[in-house]
């Protein structure tokens, strides 16, 4: 108002008192568009991210070595106080938080990350940051600078000091460091975080309680026959009512959350016989939606009262139960999967020439199967109409040709094939993208996401995609018998992201996905098996909160899930990398030989094998569950003769160890050829590709792997076994 006081003083005689009161307001209102334009000029959309050069001459280092590495900077900590100090530009006040973001590759993870604001460095200007989580692939790490908001400078640059924990010999890489304002996703996430945390904590407790509840009824069998669904069960407790109904639970429903029954809900009355048993027969031919992938069943008591939304509450009298047996008429007549025992396998088969597959004598192989944009419910360019369980869907022809080629390459060589089901994280999400397979709450830091089983259309698209793939890849030179459900789910933040969620909420989603894969594949191919994917970490002492989960807890939860909702023949796809991804001498791993071990590598894997042989861990037929060591390799640079020698020794050590474990079907070495996209790791049996040798020059480990299972293995092994028999 002071801006206009002189102007009004000169002209006050020209206006009535009421006009003098109103005109300043009118003047301000007239200038609002100008103010809005000025504000827009400082909006996040117009403030570009500012690149921060960690390799600047001004950069200060302590207990930290730094060197260029392709498009990144490689770091190695050399003492117990490693840090890097650098300047950032001024950070003008803004309604949004300032963020320091970077991409990191850090297989070991770094705890006790800290940030200091301004020199001289003092504890008063220090904030604790989230741990730099184990990242065995590139992921995004962000520092919320508002944690030290009072120390930021609006008018001049500021020195920051980023501390990388308290341990020496940590190796990691960083690239694309930027100073920016929080994006829309981060802003929305921050605003909703507190309410979301409380809601998730309640849901997590509800799911945990569900798995410990002793319901008065138990569904013992769900079976598909030629023209019906049979649901059988028995009373195991005191019944408080005879008003019981059997209902179908949908794809998006959480088992632990009581169902809401409305006019669309399918239900049938349940009558308990004198002996305490019941059986419900539901007419349903092969086209019935009640036989859809992911449908499961529960006995409830339905209230007579309507809620404001027109729903009736349903009190659960049994746990949810999945289909146990499928209609034999829907299955194809297929020969059993060839028996494997500690067989040689390989990931990334596309990197090998057909003659290389034969030369190595492989028996097993895997392909990454990207699920996104394979199937559409509506016509799209490049998509061909096809029938998926009696419904018209549209299939991406280019993507299928590419996948067909990779699967056929392995099958033509006689390999048993596995597919790793992946949903890439697009980083930017919009409700306009629905239906979408990507989980709507997936954080951009994740490489892949959990499937979207939140909204009906997206969940149905996921089911359609699985049904199509199960049919297409069920026989002949396109047959896939092993279906690995997503990647390293214990490291969910990076490899199967659905945002920060507590373990039981995360696993509810994953188990539903796993069950859908099992239903889709085993209905067509009775020999198909579904596998859970886990890293070598097992009993993490303090996993990053709501981002990582202890594999031991996950496996125990999966066993309990089968006991409550019906056992099914899942297997384990495990990645027993060495303790350090940078060192191939896995025989020197510092691991324990108990189920409380922090990790399972090849050195102590027999403990897991023994556990899998226990009664409680077995499949519905009492058999030991199948195991694939579906991804693991040994680091060796082509320029390091000692590392190359050790890598070859690790190959022989591997097969000495896994032959002791009867549960292991195959060991899929990762990878055939070194890759520039693995953060400096050189895991290949062959070196980096070149114009002269596109598939790289063979390392000694190539010959070692080739010899496994042949007459030359014993002689060649004697050259290397001194490495682990010292």
Question: Would you write up a description of this structure?
Answer:
The chain is α+β, with helices and mostly antiparallel strands and about 725 residues long. The protein has four domains: about 1-40, no CATH class; about 50-180, Jelly Rolls (Sandwich), CATH 2.60.120; about 215-315, Immunoglobulin-like (Sandwich); about 340-725, Glycosidases (TIM Barrel, Alpha-Beta Barrel). Helices cover about 25% and strands about 25% of the residues. It has an eight-stranded parallel β-barrel. Strands 1, 3, 4, 6, 9 and 11 form a six-stranded antiparallel sheet that branches. Strands 2-5-10-7-8 form a five-stranded antiparallel sheet, with no helix packed on it. Helix 8 packs across helix 9. It is globular. It starts with a helix and ends in an 8-residue tail after the last helix. About 40% of the residues are buried. InterPro entries: DUF5722, GH. Pfam families: DUF5722.
> What is the typical, i.e. mean, pLDDT?
92
Number of strands: 30
In total, the number of domains comes to 4
**Major sheet size, sense and barrel closure:** 8 strands, parallel, barrel
Shape summary: globular
Rg, alpha carbons: 30 Å
Beta-strand content bin: 15-25%
- Distance from N terminus to C terminus (CA atoms, Å) equals 86 Å
| Broad structural category | alpha+beta
So, the CATH homologous superfamily of the largest domain? Glycosidases
CATH domain class of the largest domain: Alpha Beta
* CATH-defined fold name of the largest domain: TIM Barrel
* Unreliable residue stretches: 1-20, 33-42
Describe the strand arrangement of the main beta sheet, using strand numbers.
Answer: 20-21-25-26-27-28-29-30
The helicity comes to 10-25%
CATH architecture of the largest domain: Alpha-Beta Barrel
Discrete helix count: 13
Protein name: DUF5722 domain-containing protein
Domain DUF5722: 338-720
InterPro entries: DUF5722, GH
Pfam families: DUF5722
